[in-house]
């Protein structure tokens, strides 16, 4: 293999730039050409492809976002769109790809290989940490620390005003961000999609705390929780406990930006190298990840279909520590 392409796709995450840098520098180190594809599959279809050199990725390791931009592409879900993408890659002689993204990105890469034979290796780039095949995804650690910083600040004002705050954190289908935010942020309650926490149980916990003279509370709600969003949950709780003063904060996309933490830079660099090494060794349709400090390659199909399980003890920890 003499020419490879790299792109970022789906929701951006802090550390994507560090990963791009690692891919480019590893390729240069191995004497192969590397091309940056802008805006994920959408840019691939349009031919937004440029040669990257070692100095193209200077001074980006510390930056949030992605210099290659990111997008979610509808066109690539059609065979016609994928054919156009293939033709663009052919123009540049690109024989293999490194995709930095999440399960949607890897689903596309799998189909692309079956239809057009272009091998892809993936690096897990999502703040959600919901990908099977790695203990941590690139951007997760930064997102959690960003959220925690905000939660600490909210705690100050919650305490001053004797209020209960419902803080919504990201995680479309998962509570991975919510759990360390709740434990590290000293929350009384955490609500995540993986386990059921009813409105009634939230009311009970808050009432018990209130009766024990607690005056301020933090409830962390993962955006994908089955009971609804933080605003809906807060409104229902407030109705039952009118003597409590409830407020809602949605942390939103602030969690997706900012300089990556040391842990994310390290992970991104390691996995970027592993993707290029893997491609050159003939691997395809796999995601590089780290499990128990060991580098592992997991088939895309497993990263998409298997569920990474949250240790239920973490919920118990929130209960124990909020007594
Ligand atoms: O997958 C990452 C993520 O940030 C989720 O936590 C969130 O639900 C989603 O992306 C938001 O997507 P968008 O930026 O397209 O609104």
Automatic annotation (TrEMBL):
<keyword id="KW-0808">Transferase</keyword>
<feature type="binding site" description="in other chain">
    <location>
        <position position="223"/>
    </location>
    <ligand>
        <name>substrate</name>
    </ligand>
</feature>
<feature type="binding site">
    <location>
        <position position="103"/>
    </location>
    <ligand>
        <name>Mg(2+)</name>
    </ligand>
</feature>
<feature type="active site" description="Proton acceptor">
    <location>
        <position position="128"/>
    </location>
</feature>
<feature type="binding site" description="in other chain">
    <location>
        <begin position="253"/>
        <end position="256"/>
    </location>
    <ligand>
        <name>substrate</name>
    </ligand>
</feature>
<feature type="binding site" description="in other chain">
    <location>
        <position position="155"/>
    </location>
    <ligand>
        <name>ADP</name>
    </ligand>
</feature>
<dbReference type="Pfam" id="PF00365">
    <property type="entry name" value="PFK"/>
</dbReference>
<feature type="binding site" description="in other chain">
    <location>
        <begin position="126"/>
        <end position="128"/>
    </location>
    <ligand>
        <name>substrate</name>
    </ligand>
</feature>
<dbReference type="GO" id="GO:0042802">
    <property type="term" value="F:identical protein binding"/>
</dbReference>
<comment type="pathway">
    <text>Carbohydrate degradation; glycolysis; D-glyceraldehyde 3-phosphate and glycerone phosphate from D-glucose: step 3/4.</text>
</comment>
<feature type="binding site">
    <location>
        <position position="247"/>
    </location>
    <ligand>
        <name>substrate</name>
    </ligand>
</feature>
<dbReference type="GO" id="GO:0016208">
    <property type="term" value="F:AMP binding"/>
</dbReference>
<keyword id="KW-0418">Kinase</keyword>
<dbReference type="GO" id="GO:0048029">
    <property type="term" value="F:monosaccharide binding"/>
</dbReference>
<keyword id="KW-0324">Glycolysis</keyword>
<feature type="domain" description="Phosphofructokinase">
    <location>
        <begin position="3"/>
        <end position="278"/>
    </location>
</feature>
<feature type="binding site">
    <location>
        <begin position="21"/>
        <end position="25"/>
    </location>
    <ligand>
        <name>ADP</name>
    </ligand>
</feature>
<feature type="binding site">
    <location>
        <position position="163"/>
    </location>
    <ligand>
        <name>substrate</name>
    </ligand>
</feature>
<feature type="binding site" description="in other chain">
    <location>
        <begin position="186"/>
        <end position="188"/>
    </location>
    <ligand>
        <name>ADP</name>
    </ligand>
</feature>
<keyword id="KW-0547">Nucleotide-binding</keyword>
<dbReference type="InterPro" id="IPR012828">
    <property type="entry name" value="PFKA_ATP_prok"/>
</dbReference>
<dbReference type="GO" id="GO:0046872">
    <property type="term" value="F:metal ion binding"/>
</dbReference>
<keyword id="KW-0963">Cytoplasm</keyword>
<keyword id="KW-0460">Magnesium</keyword>
<feature type="binding site" description="in other chain">
    <location>
        <position position="212"/>
    </location>
    <ligand>
        <name>ADP</name>
    </ligand>
</feature>
<comment type="similarity">
    <text>Belongs to the phosphofructokinase type A (PFKA) family. ATP-dependent PFK group I subfamily. Prokaryotic clade 'B1' sub-subfamily.</text>
</comment>
<dbReference type="InterPro" id="IPR022953">
    <property type="entry name" value="ATP_PFK"/>
</dbReference>
<keyword id="KW-0067">ATP-binding</keyword>
<keyword id="KW-0021">Allosteric enzyme</keyword>
<dbReference type="GO" id="GO:0005524">
    <property type="term" value="F:ATP binding"/>
</dbReference>
<comment type="function">
    <text>Catalyzes the phosphorylation of D-fructose 6-phosphate to fructose 1,6-bisphosphate by ATP, the first committing step of glycolysis.</text>
</comment>
<feature type="binding site" description="in other chain">
    <location>
        <begin position="170"/>
        <end position="172"/>
    </location>
    <ligand>
        <name>substrate</name>
    </ligand>
</feature>
<dbReference type="GO" id="GO:0061621">
    <property type="term" value="P:canonical glycolysis"/>
</dbReference>
<dbReference type="GO" id="GO:0003872">
    <property type="term" value="F:6-phosphofructokinase activity"/>
</dbReference>
<dbReference type="InterPro" id="IPR035966">
    <property type="entry name" value="PKF_sf"/>
</dbReference>
<dbReference type="InterPro" id="IPR000023">
    <property type="entry name" value="Phosphofructokinase_dom"/>
</dbReference>
<feature type="binding site">
    <location>
        <begin position="102"/>
        <end position="105"/>
    </location>
    <ligand>
        <name>ATP</name>
    </ligand>
</feature>
<feature type="binding site">
    <location>
        <begin position="72"/>
        <end position="73"/>
    </location>
    <ligand>
        <name>ATP</name>
    </ligand>
</feature>
<dbReference type="GO" id="GO:0006002">
    <property type="term" value="P:fructose 6-phosphate metabolic process"/>
</dbReference>
<dbReference type="InterPro" id="IPR012003">
    <property type="entry name" value="ATP_PFK_prok-type"/>
</dbReference>
<dbReference type="GO" id="GO:0030388">
    <property type="term" value="P:fructose 1,6-bisphosphate metabolic process"/>
</dbReference>
<dbReference type="InterPro" id="IPR015912">
    <property type="entry name" value="Phosphofructokinase_CS"/>
</dbReference>
């Amino acid at each position: 293999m003499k020419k490879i392409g790299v792109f970022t796709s789906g929701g951006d995450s802090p550390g994507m730039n560090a990963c791009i840098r690692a891919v480019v520098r590893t390729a240069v180190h191995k004497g192969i050409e590397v091309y940056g594809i802008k805006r994920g599959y959408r840019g691939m279809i349009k031919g937004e492809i440029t040669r990257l050199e070692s100095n193209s990725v200077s001074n980006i390791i510390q930056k949030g976002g992605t210099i290659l931009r990111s997008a979610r592409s509808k066109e690539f879900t059609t065979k016609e769109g994928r054919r156009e993408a293939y033709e663009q890659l052919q123009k540049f002689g690109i024989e293999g790809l490194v995709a930095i993204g999440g399960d949607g990105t890897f689903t596309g890469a799998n189909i692309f290989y079956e239809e057009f034979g272009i091998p892809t290796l993936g690096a897990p780039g999502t703040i959600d940490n919901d990908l099977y095949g790695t203990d941590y995804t690139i951007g997760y650690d930064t997102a959690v620390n960003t959220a925690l910083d905000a939660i600490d600040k909210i705690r100050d004002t919650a305490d001053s005003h004797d209020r209960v705050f419902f803080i919504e954190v990201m995680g479309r289908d998962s509570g991975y961000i919510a759990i360390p935010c709740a434990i590290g942020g000293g929350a009384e309650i955490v609500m995540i999609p993986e386990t059921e926490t009813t409105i009634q149980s939230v009311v009970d916990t808050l009432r018990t705390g209130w009766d024990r003279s607690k005056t301020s509370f933090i409830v962390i709600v993962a955006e994908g929780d089955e009971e609804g969003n933080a605003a809906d949950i807060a409104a229902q709780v407030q109705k039952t406990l009118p003597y409590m003063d409830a407020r809602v904060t949605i942390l939103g996309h602030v969690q997706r930006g900012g300089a990556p933490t040391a842990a994310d830079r390290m992970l991104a660099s390691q996995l970027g190298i592993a993707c290029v090494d893997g491609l050159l060794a003939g691997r395809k349709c796999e995601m590089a990840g780290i499990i128990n400090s060991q580098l592992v390659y997991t088939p895309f199909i497993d990263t998409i279909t298997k569920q990474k399980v949250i240790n239920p003890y973490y919920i118990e920890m929130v209960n124990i520590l909020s007594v």
